[in-house]
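User: Could you go from structure to sequence for me? I need the amino acid at each position, not a summary. C-alpha cells:
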C-alpha cells in the first residue's frame, strides 16, 4: 500500500499481536491517520484479523520543531470495535 503521507511503514509480530507502525508527515491530520489505518486493515484477511490482535501506532514526526506526536491512543479504541475504524 502506498500513501503520499506515509514516510515509513513497519509490521512487527509478537505472538498473537501485530503492530502496524506508520511514520507520517507532520501535517497529517488525525482523520487522515484513521483513513490510512482503515485502508491498511482492509489488506488483512478475515482469518488474520480473527486470530491476531492488530494494533496501530502512527507517528507524526518533526523532531526539530515539535518532537514526536503519536496517534496511537486515538486510533486503537476505534480499531478494537469490530476491527473497523
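Assistant: Here is the amino acid at each position, in order:
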Amino acid at each position: 500500500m502506498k500513501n503520499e503521507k506515509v514516510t515509513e511503514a513497519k509490521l512487527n509480530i509478537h505472538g498473537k499481536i501485530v503492530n502496524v507502525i506508520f511514520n507520517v508527515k507532520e501535517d497529517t491530520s488525525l482523520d487522515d491517520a484513521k483513513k490510512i489505518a482503515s485502508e491498511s486493515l482492509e489488506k488483512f484477511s478475515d482469518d488474520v484479523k480473527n486470530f491476531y490482535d492488530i494494533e496501530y501506532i502512527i507517528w507524526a514526526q518533526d523532531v526539530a520543531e515539535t518532537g514526536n506526536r503519536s496517534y496511537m491512543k486515538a486510533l486503537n479504541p476505534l480499531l478494537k470495535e469490530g476491527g473497523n475504524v
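One structural detail worth keeping in mind: DSSP finds three helices and four strands in the chain.
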